[in-house]
Amino acid sequence: GRKSLRQKVVDELKHYYDGFHLLWIDTKVAARMVWRLLHGQVLTRRERRRLLRTCADLFRLVPFLVFVIVPFMEFLLPVFLKLFPEMLPSTFETESKKEEKQKKKLNAKLELAKFLRETIVEMAKRNKADTG
Question: Which residues belong to any copy of the Letm1 RBD domain (predicted)?
Answer without folding.
Answer: 43-128
